[in-house]
Design brief:
The protein has 353 residues and is α+β, with helices and mostly antiparallel strands. The protein contains 6 helices and 17 strands. Helix 1 packs across helix 2 and helix 4 packs across helix 5.
């Protein structure tokens, strides 16, 4: 199997995006589609302003064991409507929790979480809906196995911003010595910054295990000036649209997946420790105006050794590492955007790297 450092390196997982741009739009939806029969799923919410759907079903104490898809979407709470389109598509495929004698009698459980990107394209009312969600899940279903995740300004990352810098979609994976794959997909969209204000380096790069290449001080000074200018433009646009200039609501979302066989409780532990990856790459994190949420999926291809109760540890550590790496990739893949809703420069345009 060829690996691409992508969530789809976990066998059976597919990812689809639906991107909405132009005419005041700068948003979209991303769907992670599990293999038929679903994947064990869990969630951990750390932000103070989350927007979610069906997350209670993932509690280890509750009935549902597996889910067929996870939805990440822009549009704040309005964008959660996109999950309805995914649910309708899954019902048509007969995929979901069986609730009746006929194979078509299913109720798909579709956990979803949203990021705040309202108005960033200029139109506050432009947001994903059920049609957008259906387009994203159809894109996932129509992709070939192991197709790398498209990164940057796509899907739920279309209108994403990290601090003052354009955010987006990023993904990363690792194959452990045990043969188990651990991977992450992130929608990087945070009130905090991903860039060290003192050096211009991405915070996440301090954890790559190799010497950090710092931007030239002159380049960093010019980037700081350009960011301040862009922030002023964006603040004016936001104030004009809203009648005031409140702090932006944000949220970073992640799906961390593995082909290991995990229980719901173990998957929830993976979701929780993976938040450490956010804390390394974004500062500050988990604020009241963030809704930071991590979903964990386990497809069950590789059993953990019964005589090694700490075997889960390497998966937990890798989950956090992959979230950090995915945030770095999101910031490097993002492209600058200027709309009536604001000016959002990319890290590459600012630093040339």
């Amino acid at each position: 199997m060829t690996t691409h450092s992508s969530l789809t390196d976990v066998p059976g997982l597919r990812v689809g995006h639906a991107t909405l741009t132009g005419e005041g739009r700068l948003t979209g939806t991303t769907v992670v589609l599990a293999p038929p029969g679903g994947a064990v799923a869990a969630v951990d919410v750390r932000g103070g302003g989350p927007g979610t759907r069906e997350t209670d079903a993932l509690d280890p104490r509750n009935l549902v064991q597996r889910v067929e898809a996870v939805v990440l979407t822009g549009g704040s709470a309005y964008g959660l409507d996109s999950a309805a389109g995914v649910m309708a598509w899954l019902e048509e495929q007969g995929r979901g929790v069986r609730v009746g004698p006929d194979p078509s009698h299913v109720v798909p459980v579709v956990p979803a979480a949203c990021v705040f990107d309202l108005g960033r394209g200029g139109d506050f009312t432009a947001r994903p809906d059920a049609v957008t969600g259906r387009a994203a899940v159809e894109a996932a279903a129509g992709s070939e196995p192991f197709t790398p995740v498209e990164e940057g300004n796509v899907g739920a990352g279309t209108g994403a911003v990290v601090g003052k810098v354009k955010g987006g979609i990023g993904s990363a994976s690792v194959r452990l010595d045990s043969g188990i794959t651990v991977a992450a997909l992130v929608v990087a969209n945070a009130a905090g910054s991903g860039v060290d204000a003192g050096t211009g380096a991405l915070y996440g790069r301090y954890f790559e295990g190799r010497p950090v290449s710092y931007p030239d001080p002159g380049v960093h000074e010019e980037a700081t000036r350009r960011l301040a200018e862009a922030a002023s433009v964006s603040a004016s646009a936001a104030a004009s649209a809203a009648g005031s200039g409140p702090p932006p609501l944000n949220t970073t979302l992640a799906v961390v997946a593995t082909d290991a066989a995990l229980s719901k409780a173990q998957a929830q532990k993976l979701a929780g420790t993976s938040h450490d990856g956010m804390a390394r790459a974004v500062r500050p994190v988990h604020l009241l105006n963030d809704g930071d949420t991590v979903f964990a999926l386990a497809t069950g291809e590789h059993s953990l050794a019964a005589d090694a109760p700490l075997a889960l540890n390497e998966i937990l550590a890798a989950g956090a590492d992959m979230v950090t790496a995915a945030i770095v990739r999101a910031l490097l893949a993002a492209e600058s955007v200027e709309t009536p809703g604001g000016k959002f420069p990319s890290y590459r345009d600012l630093y040339g790297t």
